[in-house]
Write a structure and sequence with these properties.
About 40% of the residues lie in helices and about 20% in strands. The chain is an alpha/beta fold. The relative contact order is 0.14. The chain binds NADPH dihydro-nicotinamide-adenine-dinucleotide phosphate (NDP). NADPH dihydro-nicotinamide-adenine-dinucleotide phosphate (NDP) binds next to α5, α6 and α10. The site of NADPH dihydro-nicotinamide-adenine-dinucleotide phosphate has 27 residues, from α5, α6 and α10.
Length: about 270
């Protein structure tokens, strides 16, 4: 029987995950099926349980179920424990469910692919929601010099800085006092999804600064437009992060790391 995988979310019909995982399967010559499952918002656990009973081998989980999926895991990676959420579930041979969050891997590998190593970089992370929380450990483990977190609701940035303080140089930053510009600025707020620009002080950006928006769209995102207007050295959206996080999920399930670039190129073409 073909091994069964799925992505759970609500809404989920827009998901690019089936295309990505079928492309990975074709590339690595594996036979899998991968579907979308729109679980009822009040009955995710039952929907997931039915999937396992029907022979499901692994699943991705997206909004709004990442925290509920976390609570249903028997085993968790350190990254998932710190994130308090998972996007990748794997049914182990003993029947237990293993959970990981692969967003941080997707982000860091995409930054490295495009901008080179991250060693010694001063990084500013905008936003303190789920995507930020799931990415901080991978950023700190990548060798960056420091991570400042800025958020509209500053108490959330302070909470994250507190959680991750034992893993590296991390602080919450109000961006009120002018300081040295950052090497890398990552936008993890959902403002770009609504086309909203953030109100940011110009001193955070210098001519060498690279800017990365986790959101992706056909057009340049509002944050990347702002960065370009302030002469950022390079800008990128988060499409590569999306494919990278999927690659890590695929590796969990199939024990082989697929190539990101060809799948990213085909998705980019579809988007445009
Ligand atoms: P959450 O809802 O958990 O967090 C949203 C964050 O955005 C909060 O920090 C919130 O601030 C901030 N925010 C929202 N609107 C505004 C605004 N108008 N001005 C300033 N700040 C704002 O969302 P996620 O963390 O799950 O997702 C965030 C983004 O990351 C989305 O665009 C999502 O598509 C993208 N993403 C991309 C991935 C990829 O693979 N490329 C993977 C995961 C996420 P406050 O706390 O003050 O409300």
């Amino acid at each position: 029987m073909t091994d069964k995988y799925a992505v759970f979310g609500n809404p989920i019909s827009h998901s690019k995950s089936p295309h990505i995982h079928h492309s990975f399967a074709e590339q690595t010559q594996q036979a899998i099926s991968y579907t979308t499952i729109a679980a009822p918002t009040d009955d995710f656990a039952d929907s997931l349980s039915q999937f396992w009973q029907s022979g499901g081998c692994g699943a991705n989980v997206t909004m709004p179920f990442k925290e509920q999926a976390f609570a249903l895991c028997d085993q968790l990676t350190e990254e998932a424990q710190l994130a308090g959420a998972v996007n990748t579930l794997t049914k182990l041979p003993n029947g237990e469910i293993h959970g990981d969050t692969t967003d941080g891997f997707g982000l860091v590998t995409d930054l490295q692919r495009q901008f080179g190593h991250l060693k010694g970089k001063r990084v500013l992370l905008l936003g303190a929601g789920g995507a930020a929380r799931g990415s901080i450990l991978a950023l700190l483990n990548s060798g960056i010099a420091s991570l400042c977190i800025h958020n509209r609701t500053m108490s959330k940035a302070e909470d994250l800085a507190q959680i991750f303080t034992r893993y590296g140089e991390v602080s919450a930053n109000s961006l009120i006092e002018p300081q040295t510009a950052f090497d890398i600025i990552i936008n993890s707020t959902s403002a770009s999804l609504n086309g909203q620009a953030l109100t940011l002080p110009p001193w955070i950006i210098a001519q060498h600064t690279v800017c990365y928006d986790m959101a992706y769209a056909k057009e340049t995102t509002a944050f990347n437009l702002w960065a370009q207007q302030h002469n950022a050295a390079q800008t990128s959206d988060g499409l590569g992060m999306l494919v990278g996080q999927a690659a890590k999920s695929f590796q969990h399930w199939r024990k082989v790391m697929p190539q990101v670039e060809p799948v990213l190129a085909s998705l980019r073409q579809q988007l445009s």
